[in-house]
Amino acid sequence: AQSVTQLGSHVSVSEGALVLLRCNYSSSVPPYLFWYVQYPNQGLQLLLKYTSAATLVKGINGFEAEFKKSETSFHLTKPSAHMSDAAEYFCAVIPRAGGFKTIFGAGTRLFVKA
Amino acid sequence: DGGITQSPKYLFRKEGQNVTLSCEQNLNHDAMYWYRQDPGQGLRLIYYSQIVNDFQKGDIAEGYSVSREKKESFPLTVTSAQKNPTAFYLCASSSYGTGYSNQPQHFGDGTRLSIL
Description:
The complex is a heterodimer of chains A (114) and B (116). Chain A is mostly beta strands and 114 residues long.
């Protein structure tokens, strides 16, 4: 069965430093890939999605993610962290074959230090 | 603006009591979902519905029930059989059907349920 692995339940960076949140998927056929962000006591918001166009996907708030088929990865990056980026981030997939339900990773909480 | 509305934001349940969480969407989405979120456990799917008058169990359906009488509404009842209901509950919706399998989900702002 399809699964999503997010490496690191917690990531801490300094303000202005690079943000790198890791995500790997398990299927041999690349699924549709998504990153969502959740601020405290709120629902999830879509950051970006990959559906088989360009492998580098730009999202909101300066985030981007690169799809690498050879590594089955879809890591999320931002060149310079802001305090407002502190939140929980979820990687998610929808299998291409016969699926419409979203499978979520366990989430990575991002802390930003002043 | 289109979106998903969950109510109430906070809810308290007494022992032996059933409570119902509301979820309404005006996005014209066919599919709707309920998730439970516990600290450190990500999102777990409780129930989902692809069309009106039809729904399926997710991964943790025991102790919960749903209905889908209208396209816009997908209420969740937490029954007294759910022995550990304290959690953050999220409702979501998405487009469904041919050509929509790559569509993201839209989420409400959640209901936090606690035991009295």
